[in-house]
Amino acid sequence: MANLLGTAVNSLSVYQTALATTSNNIANSNNEDYNRQRVELSTQIPNPQGRSFVGTGVQVDQISRAYDDFTALAIRDAESSVGRGEILEDFATRVNTLLSDDGSSLAPSLQAFYGSIADVSSDPSSIPPRSALLGEADNLASQFNSLAAEIDDLNSEVNGRVINQVAEINTIATGIVDLNNAINAVGGQNGSTFPNDLFDQRDALLKDLSSLVSVTTVQQQDGILNVLIGVGQLLVSGATQNVLQSVPSGRNPNEVSVAIQSNGALVDITSSLAGGSLSGLLSFQQTELDGVQNVLGRLAIGVSSLVNAQHVEGQDLNGNLGTNVFSVGQPNVFANTNNTGAATVAVTVTTASDLQASDYELRFDGTNFNVVRQSDNATVANSTGPTIAVDGLTFTIAGGAPATGDRFYAEPYANSAAGFSNLLTDPRSIAAALPTKTEEAVANVGTGTITRPVISDATDVNLQNTVTLTFNDPPTTFDQLDVTLGVTTAGVAFTSGNTITINGNDFVLSGVPQPGDVFTLQANTNATTDNGNSLLLDRTQTIRIFDGGTNTLAATYDRAVADAGIRTQQLQATLASDQGILTNLNDRRESISGVNLDEEAGDLLRFQQAFQALSRTIQVAQATFDSILQAT
User: Fold this and answer.
1) Half-sphere exposure of 538 (CA within 13 A, CB side)
2) Residues contacting residue 97 through CB under 8 Å, at least 6 positions apart
3) What is the pTM of this model?
4) Average model confidence (pLDDT) for the chain?
5) How far is CA 125 from CA 113, 129, 320, 321, 630, in A?
6) 3-class DSSP state for residue 370?
7) H or E segment and range at residue 17
8) CB 3.0-4.6 Å disulfide test: which of 16, 40, 65, 590 passes with 35?
9) Residue 476 CA to chain centroid, in angstroms?
10) CA 151, CA 420: separation in Å to the nearest integer?
11) pLDDT of 192-218, one tens digit each?
């Protein structure tokens, strides 16, 4: 009788637990981080009865989670890929829109500027088209400035997000430490205690963490987890947390790096971070954003270089030689915060056509400075200094002695677009005319002809001197007289079609001159209707200045727009693929760990029936016991 009652009472408690577990599953059916729990039952040890054994009921071995480690790991990896991809795709789309949208694109402003130069060429003496040209120069400068400001805003946003995400990682790490402690306090997973809800909470934090940065976990026998981020950086070790900090970058104070507090010291781990949105932010800043800034900066230098070089070779309405039209911002060079030497580095632009859209790092190895181009990580120069010329740039090393390991980070174009400005304010200062002209004497009898001069050296102090070329007999030579200086050079050899250079002027004499024929090079006075230099200014837009003589100014910008569009499409495709993988993995997890309400309803009915039957068993035992008492 005691066995009947004891078996029923003990088993009733078991099915009460089963009903409570099923009820808990149903209650958490919409909790995406919940793993379905199962009551694992086993038969209790039977009692001997003669030569046989009588069962004593059922017992709860454990309440387990429907959980698959491999699926959880794959989901965390996919979360890291999607987190990184979402950041890169979002910012790339914004950059693409910035470069290509009609309201922000540089292309219309550049086209309008050159269109205004053509208008001045059509009527060089008129003030209105000159004023319009100055207005378009201002608009072009404003567009460069606006794009640079937008890029600076994106950089500031990235820095702010990095700071926020570092704080978020620290908060999550603290939560994992707390859960490690809680799991340890109740016995962990040591075979006697299974705190499933605590495990679920910790897994949810790991999933959140993996969307920020790639995560690796190492589980101890007591159920406690060690958490590593990136490439093996220990974030959580049991009950100990290594705190992350956002700090100014050692190479570039305009960027934020990530450091970890380890053994009382800060260690920069930026290069060790991989996966997740934090990695995406840092990657976008150091590659995509820096790249766009360099393309725009190089383009600003190209526009300024071409237009200025041609304008100074012209003459304005006041009869003065042309001056620079545009100016650009100056390069940045940052000494690494870990440097111990006393050297300083400066960089200047020397040849615009050789420029590469890249930052550079100078690394001192104890003997030489190695110049590493950041766009392709190529070492492009190795020198002791004090000057190093590479890619159209000149690096100048000064100050005291460098120390082994010292580094300097150079941004040749960081401020070029931001500092791009129009220097002209007076419409009459536009140098549309050429400063010199050539003439053939009316009395010439030969067939000799002379071209208009092209200025090869506008700085020549004798540029506008009057010079006559008088052919000798036979006309295979000529005497060159600088009338302004009173200097004669006799017997200069003549070859038809060859370029002749005099006082910074280049021109070509062709044909068959006769003895006594005279050709004159002189200042272009009263040249208000001359458009010679404005025509040359207009042609600068067709000069293939960049990328080894393959791209004009407009083509360079168009290529940047195309590259941004292609990059955006690639990132969108990658993100869509990663999101598809994550969706499939979540579906797989749901099939393993999710709560099926139909299944739970069936279990609820089954356990309820067992509970009711056991209750009836207790009633039977009681009635039997009463009958025995009455019989005695």
Assistant:
1) 17
2) 104
3) 0.86
4) 91
5) 18, 9, 15, 16, 134
6) strand
7) helix 2-27
8) 65
9) 64
10) 15
11) 567 899 999 999 999 999 999 999 999
